[in-house]
Amino acid sequence: MFRIQDNIWVKRFFEVFVRCSLQTCIQRDPRGLYKKAINGEIPQFTGINAPYEEPLNPDIILDTEHKSIEDNLKAMLD
After folding, report:
1. Cα three-residue angle 69-75-78, rounded to 5 degrees
2. Helix (H) or strand (E) holding 60
3. How far apart are CA 2 and CA 13, in angstroms?
4. What's the first-to-final CA gap in the chain, in angstroms?
5. In whole angstroms, what is the distance from residue 58 CA to residue 55 CA?
6. Which pLDDT score is estimated for 6?
7. What is the pLDDT of residue 3?
8. What total of structural domains would you count in the chain?
9. Does residue 20 sit in helix, strand or coil?
10. Dihedral sign, Cα of residue 35, residue 37, residue 42, residue 48
11. Are 62 and 17 in contact (CB under 8 A)?
């Protein structure tokens, strides 16, 4: 069993890493959180003023910047 949070346990865990560049994250941000973090309005925002660490060994990596939705869906279902 894997522990996700203090009191949440699951039998199976499948880690999906959705990869895209910081610039793409900023462009896709509908609430403007990245802009606020860049302007110093949000402290400790991951990837801006707090470190971002890619997962070490995800079960699957979806490249949403360079691959189509269809290609990523196919990768998940394979």
Report:
1. 140
2. strand 60-63
3. 7
4. 24
5. 6
6. 66
7. 61
8. 1
9. coil
10. positive
11. yes
